[in-house]
């Protein structure tokens, strides 16, 4: 069942992005930045984690989950280390994604030329 | 007759016998603009975006079954695999073709984030590894990271101020 | 000789004694493929970077143009060139190979006619024996500089245009045979507040209309005096707007054939990736110096007016929320008068 909801929820989040492109006429950069902040806000009010439980990858794959992970990192560290944790913990959870993107992109740039 | 320099709003530009304000010209221009098929784009975005998330769910399930991870633990390697797939498709010059069709369907999932970094890196190789690849990799993805981090910081500060104390 | 407010009339009617067009693979798949002098089969133009590719196109076209003109490099008085790159670096490096005295110009996609007008003026006024006008564009260098990395997955709207990969050069002289340049109308900047760099056609249409109308007013000619009038790269959206504005203004363009180089160079039904049509400095250059010159030479066309249009934005001006100022330059060409 979670596979079905992953498809549907993931698809719906993408539809929101498409509407931001076509109706609000936002650039991809503006749209993604807005979605990331939306994910952060949703986690702040405690709505994103239930969505992840319900839709699995449908909530954890879109860029909104990036905002969710950043907030998670900050809040977990806040609880553990006090107020300084708000800064020190931010990249804890997202480290895999950002590191992977940097490393793989760098390797790609070594071997591949753009095709146009 | 020389056309009026662009200055005040509502100023009219003279093209031979035609006098047009910017707003009037915008109306003319909009009449000739091909209509974006929003419904078609949304359907495409839904299908492709949903499919990518479905693939993500399959990958996550594989990690949970064969690497004995919980759902939360499996999320990170799943994202890493999707990023790898995106980098490979970008390197083969295929990603942008799919994206023209799918729109937000490829841009909104983490694959879009990886594509923005990979395409910038590949393109900037011509300027060298340090000044090209290194300096330009985050040209498109930078705003996502900056705004995400700032938003997370603000959320954290709010938690501190209102004594909410961290993870809920 | 200045006539009217902004038009030069060239009394000696300098001739285009030689020209050449060199394009990339996608242009070689379009309806005008047989009119180009050379078609490369790869987008890299056998070079390591996109920027070098653009430079090679211009170098190749300029060398071929000199051959067609029957003159040596040393005989060339001036090279007038430009392109879309920052600091018109493509034209600069090409000028280095050409080694003639060099005048760099920036008119974005109107560079072809801007440089041709200046070359004709020099030749007519006795300021040059042979003057070469040339320009080039490459799809990937423009995407990289003005928009997004070429492999980035952004969804282009239907109003977006496709920068052509190609270069065109023409050698102009008072002596020699070839289609004649009779007039040139220099445009004024027009800016009606369009800010969308993915809808260049709408940004440039007013400039095309203004220059066209100024040309008619200064020369006393009308659309009926030309067998063909082409705009440089308004493409489907901009060309329709221009037609609309001209009609509203009472200029009867149906008395001539009114077309656009950006629409002529691609088959929009087959090559759907070009969206609204072609654009770029090379667009008006390769269509004019190939297809149109050919038709003038074999007398299928008697008189042609080419109105090249340019959007003069910079990558930064767009990010800072500025609108897109545009310009259009027109050059009138005539077939060689026969000896009989």
UniProtKB/TrEMBL annotation, chain A:
NCBIfam families per record: spore_V_AE
Record-given protein name: Stage V sporulation protein AE
Keyword Transmembrane helix recorded: yes
InterPro entries assigned to the protein according to its UniProt record, in alphabetical order: Spore_V_AE, SpoVA
Alphabetized Pfam families for the sequence: SpoVAC_SpoVAEB (PF03862)
Keyword tags: Membrane, Transmembrane, Transmembrane helix
Transmembrane segments: 6-24, 83-112
From TrEMBL, chain B:
Alphabetical keyword list: Membrane, Transmembrane, Transmembrane helix
Top-level division of the source organism's lineage: Bacteria
Keyword Thylakoid part of the UniProt annotation: no
Regions crossing the membrane: 42-63, 75-95, 140-162
InterPro entries in the cross-refs: Spore_V_AC, SpoVA
Transmembrane helix found in the keyword field: yes
PANTHER family associated with the record: STAGE V SPORULATION PROTEIN AC, STAGE V SPORULATION PROTEIN AC-RELATED
Name of this chain's protein: Stage V sporulation protein AC
Upper taxonomic lineage: Bacteria, Bacillati, Bacillota, Bacilli, Bacillales
UniProtKB/TrEMBL annotation, chain C:
Cited SUPFAM superfamilies: Thiolase-like (SSF53901)
UniProt feature coiled coil, ranges: none
InterPro entries on file: SpoVAD (IPR010894), SpoVAD_sf (IPR038369), Thiolase-like (IPR016039)
Protein name, as recorded: Stage V sporulation protein AD
